[in-house]
TrEMBL record:
Taxonomic placement: Bacteria, Pseudomonadati, Pseudomonadota, Gammaproteobacteria, Aeromonadales
Similarity-based family: Belongs to the major facilitator superfamily. Bcr/CmlA family.
Any one GO molecular-function label of the UniProt entry: sodium:proton antiporter activity
Localisation per UniProt entry: Cell inner membrane; Cell membrane
Gene Ontology BP annotations: xenobiotic detoxification by transmembrane export across the plasma membrane
Keywords from the named record: Cell inner membrane, Cell membrane, Membrane, Transmembrane, Transmembrane helix, Transport
InterPro entries per UniProt: Efflux_drug-R_Bcr/CmlA, MFS, MFS_dom, MFS_trans_sf
Record has Phosphoprotein as a keyword: no
Record-given protein name: Bcr/CflA family efflux transporter
Length: 398
């Protein structure tokens, strides 16, 4: 079953809202701190708050998507995202900004859950991984341009204008998806929204060894990315004196390599299978982490040694993200929304922990960021070897 390009663009727009909401305001964090008269580390906590809200939202949306359908959940979440973005635009204190960022994240969480479940309704495992790679390939345009747009909005306006733009984008995506996206969950496959069955479904996933491994692979790799997102404004702008408007260009270099690997993944999945590509991505990330931590600990090579190591590690999310999700959902096709929600909650929950760990040190140093990123990459690989690999061996697969 082919996916029409217009539908691909809409799904990518849905997936792109979260990276837009995270990445577009990264260059403005020092400006937000100055404007609201708080330390930069406190402004960075708005990232942790967003990730925590995103994690909590997915726990709710997953069972709802399996109960009332994909489309109502998607549109309700987008409405909340849009309204909360307006609230962020008018925030005049760090507490108000954090509160609306929390609501913005809870609304945006619907898109991630619905996207995974919707595609799982339409495609089998390896085709899911291939289509997801195509969606991610188009979606990566969002984090590619978001920091650049945010940096230049600061030159011509104020940081509040970034959230005005996010509200406009959220409203446009809501209208387009309402008109174009069909309901994919058949009535006979809907599960009543009752607390005990929901907890049972979560328990089934948590008791499944391979599922835990797939969740761990995706979550720890994503946590490494969020450690970078949280720490890079301080490291690049404050430590290495990169201008805010140029920060987005360095950030975009990561996304370009991600796009290359995403395209390659979509082509290689039919030939190699999602599990082999997952292992390749995890191994590469773990090796890049060795170089990254060395650079962070010694300062060797400065910015231009740090950037390539970051690029290689972050780019592996293209392989790990789609293939770990394909592996997870292949075990729970009848509860794709719930399984996807649990995976998403774990990813963004650990992402919040990673950003908090990076921000716990107030030193202007690359070491906190590189240390957290490296630990996450190594734990992701450990999840594969300790949990996924034994399950594959038992099933007679490599």
């Amino acid at each position: 079953m082919a996916l029409p390009f217009s539908l691909l663009l809409l799904l990518a727009s849905l997936a792109g809202l979260t990276p837009l909401a995270i990445d577009m305001y990264l260059p403005s964090l020092p400006a937000i701190a100055r404007d609201l008269d708080v330390p930069v580390s406190q402004a960075q906590l708005t990232i942790s708050v967003f990730l925590a809200g995103f994690a909590l939202g997915q726990l709710l949306y997953g069972p709802l998507a399996d109960s009332v359908g994909r489309k109502p959940v998607m549109l309700g979440g987008l409405g909340l995202f849009t309204l909360a973005s307006i609230g962020c635009a008018f925030a005049n204190s760090i507490e108000t900004l954090m509160a609306f960022r929390l609501l913005q994240a809870i609304g945006g969480a619907a898109g991630s859950v619905v996207l995974n479940a919707l595609l799982r309704d339409m495609f089998e495992r390896d085709m899911f991984a291939r289509i997801m790679s195509m969606v991610i390939l188009v979606m990566t345009l969002a984090p590619l341009v978001a920091p650049i747009v945010g940096g230049y909005l600061l030159l011509v306006g104020h940081w509040h204008s970034i959230f005005v733009l996010l509200a406009i984008i959220g409203a446009l995506v809501s209208v387009a998806l309402a008109l174009r996206i069909p309901e994919t969950l058949k009535p006979e496959h809907r599960q009543p929204f009752r607390l005990w069955p929901v907890l049972q479904n979560y328990g089934r996933v948590l008791r499944h060894r391979a599922a835990l491994g797939y969740i761990g692979c995706g979550a720890m790799t994503t946590a490494a990315m969020f450690a970078f997102i949280s720490g890079s404004p301080l490291v690049y702008i404050e430590l290495y004196d990169v201008p805010a408007e140029h920060y987005g260009l360095l950030f975009a270099m990561n996304i370009v390599l991600m796009m290359v690997l995403t395209f390659g993944n979509s082509r290689l999945v039919p030939r190699l299978g999602s599990d082999r590509l997952l292992k390749a991505g995890l191994t590469t990330a773990a090796l890049a982490a060795v170089v990254l931590l060395f650079c962070g600990f010694t300062g060797f090579g400065g910015l231009w040694a740090l950037v390539p190591a970051v690029m290689v590690l972050i780019a592996q999310i293209s392989l790990v993200g789609a293939n770990s999700m394909a592996g997870l959902l292949s075990h729970f096709p009848e509860a794709a929304g719930t399984a996807s929600a649990l995976a998403g909650t774990t990813r963004f929950g650990l992402g919040a922990v990673a950003t908090f760990a990076v921000n716990a040190s107030h030193a202007v140093s690359a070491l906190p960021m590189t240390l957290v990123m490296s630990l996450c990459a190594w734990l992701a690989l450990a999840s594969y070897w300790l949990l996924v690999r034994p399950a594959l061996a038992a099933a007679g697969r490599k």
